[in-house]
Amino acid sequence: xxxxxxxxxxxxxxxxxxxxxxxxxxxxxxxxxxxxxxxxxxxxxxxxxxxxxxxxxxxxxxxxxxxxxxxxxxxxxxxxxxxxxxxxxxxxxxxxxxxxxxxxxxxxxxxxxxxxxxxxxxxxxxxxxxxxxxx
Length: 135
Fold this sequence. Notes:
mainly alpha
């Protein structure tokens, strides 16, 4: 379930890529021509890496929830915030101050990462994780 949640959050960011790819597919003369194109290959690669990354991240967050014994939503929010601060905050700071990217672009990426970390930990706490694999 965590993989589905996390993948949906990732697809919200990748939607423009897939929308553009869909428009090119409609403009292609045939299905075979489109499937052989570079756009189809890049869209498939983005989707594949997104779902694999979602699965790995979901497993890691679930393992942290179990290892820390987190049972409350407050604890899950703290845990997700720590994961966000460790994984995404340095990139956000770099994009704003070093690369001087537009704030709206950085904000969309940061919001997606908040959903992928804090949202995922809250969702997995709500759904429930298996605390002892031998039960």
